[in-house]
Amino acid sequence: MSAAVKLQVLERAEKEIMKLSRPDIGAVYEFMHKFRANPDQPGLDLKSLRGDTRLMAARVKRDLRALMLHIGERDYLLVGVEHRSAVYANLDRYAYRINRVTGGIEVMDLHPIDTQPVGDSIVGRALAGQPEQTRLFAAHTDAQLVELGVAEPLLPRIRQLTSEDELLELVDRAPQLTVDVLFALFDGKSFQDVLEQVTRPVQVAEVIDTDDFEAAVRRPATLVTTDDEALNFILAESFERWQIFLHPTQRRLVERRYSGPARVGGGPGTGKTIVALHRVAHLVRALPPGDDQVVLLTTFNRNLAADLRTRLVALAGEEVLARVDVVNIDRVAARVVTEGDPAAPKRKVDDNQAPQLWRRFLAAEVPETGWDADFLAAEWEQVILGQALTTRAGYLRARRPYRGRNLNRVERNQVWELAERFVRWLTAQGLTTWRQVAVRAAALEGSRATAGEYRYRHVVVDEAQDLSAAHWRMLRAMVPPGPDDMFLTGDTHQRIYDNRVTLGSLGINIRGRSSRLTLSYRTTRQILAAALEIMSGEVYDDLDGGSEDLAGYRSLLRGARPRFRGASDWAAELNLIAEQLADWGTPQDGSVAVCLPTRELANEMTTRLIADGIATVEIGPDGPKQADGVHVGTMHRFKGLEYQKMIIAGMADGYVPRHMINRYRDSDPKRYQRERQRDRSLLFVAATRARDELAIFWHGSPSPFLTDRQIQAGTPERP
């Protein structure tokens, strides 16, 4: 019996398959099964092209051909799917090679690109009639581009590029490393920066044999799919294809062995969540056999946790999921407290209700205190609970970062006494806040850790910027310190809750084990540019005492410019929203969403859409209740979601930022700035949920977070 045929699919080929019609996609999948069964069956018409024993074509259907590289005796790589006429009309248009930097296989369509080899006349060749200063990459030699990993057959075309549009046109034909390098240079990075940040992370240490395709196909840089279930998922769900894809830079982060806690940062859409999911699968597959859940995958929001579970199943299957505890962080804490302290209050209230509870407490118990309820609520949450302070002496000595008002010793004593009375008042009513639950859980887990008892072998955290200090203390105590113990992904520019920590002070040392992703796979360059304008002028921390920015954050996707439109009042804005949905054809397949700053506006939006006969889906705490329909929700609900087209409405001053934070402008300037930054981050998160098209509307005075240019673009012309 002959050896089984192995047919793998190059990532480039997957992109081509996604452009086909549904029937043709099905034909490709059927072809793969037939080819694996017997590549020599007459109906497939397998033949070499242009006398090349490696590049081959086979019949998918009457007018469709599969291009393949013959890697080994019974080993093939599908590198493209083309119309029959395109395959045979110009055979010289296809080039394949092994990249000298990554060792991966690269296939490209050179038409109509000059194929003259490097070293003959390309290096140093002048381009007649084209001024040197107009060419995009005139400042870099061919030798430099090759050293960075640019595909050599593309150098003649690269030398002709004079505009961003021409560069974007080349993207569809170029290998991934070439694209990454060219856009990094185009965005202003120096040769040395690109070498260190783009090329070196994917460079292999071994000497590359450019003729050994069997070795090349096994390297991470050759992005392939082999598993039928994963391939079927890709072919059936083109919009979700990115859930499987890993860039070689990301794969290095996923598969690396770390000596301790590690963190991966990056802007929206750079694949942090995908990295976290693949990291979980990698850790599980390295575990010894068993049926216990020894990996914790957690995040802040319930709807994000549910989404992580769904994605993990799609990516790795039920077998991997069986070894992973996927749950949001507050539920983790609640389980710990329920198990370790059965007498703890059962009714849990959201932390954002703490100021209201403090007002009720002061009115009922200490009406003449003179202390502001909002200040006391923030001091209790951020300092006393934030630092898990259990004694008066500890509070008197405590540092109070991010707090605007200084307190002397007498005032601290007063605050401590009020906090103790407040906790007793809550307990008497059977109430507790989620932050209290986290603090109690951290103490209980700390006791277990002291006794050498740990719940997990590995902890993976997504959206790490949203967790509180108590959450981190609990997680630190849940896993023994050591290699690969904790893996964190997050972006402080997307912090939408008032949790600020320095991980090193909590026993989580990520120094030297932090990485950053800069390439967005979700958002177009046009939407990204608008979102970055919204963030201008702000400084964000890196979770470990330093600062972090979005320098180098970029996208390779292109699309329409975001639309900005203002209206005189809310009724007029509702009409604008309806017009925009109609302009988009009002798709109701779950690909379009309307995001608003408050629940009241969201409810009114839903009422209007239903009255217009449009199916509407509410985004609740666990995510959208169903897929089909136009999704509507508040800005907080959109964390972790994405849509092809999106409207952000109600972007008026007083809504974004919230009018209520003005009370802190003079009494607590630091809190005012913190709350303002949080609202800006919320808008940034919302804007970067859109993949292809974005519209931002407001009524009355526009949000001050919008730039003058954006506002002017949305201001109706005067008659």
Structural features:
27 helices, 6-stranded mixed beta sheet, alpha/beta, 719 residues, YaeB-like fold
Break the fold down into its secondary structure elements and pairings:
Layout: E1 6-10, H1 11-18, H2 22-37, E2 47-49, E3 52-61, E4 64-72, E5 75-83, H3 84-89, E6 94-98, E7 105-109, H4 142-148, H5 155-160, H6 164-171, H7 176-186, H8 191-199, H9 213-216, E8 224-225, H10 228-236, H11 248-255, E9 262-266, H12 272-285, E10 295-298, H13 302-316, H14 318-321, E11 324-326, H15 329-340, E12 347-349, H16 354-365, H17 373-385, H18 392-397, H19 409-428, E13 431-433, H20 434-450, E14 458-461, H21 469-478, E15 486-490, E16 514-517, E17 519-520, H22 525-534, E18 540-541, E19 547-548, E20 554-555, E21 563-567, H23 570-583, E22 589-596, H24 599-611, E23 616-620, E24 623-624, E25 629-634, E26 643-648, H25 664-667, H26 669-687, E27 690-699, H27 708-714
Parallel strand pairs: 1-5, 9-15, 9-16, 10-11, 10-14, 12-13, 14-15, 17-20, 21-27, 22-25, 22-26, 23-25, 26-27
Antiparallel strand pairs: 1-8, 2-3, 3-4, 4-5, 6-7, 18-19, 23-24
Helix pairs in contact: 6-7, 7-8, 11-12, 12-13, 15-20, 16-17, 20-21, 22-26
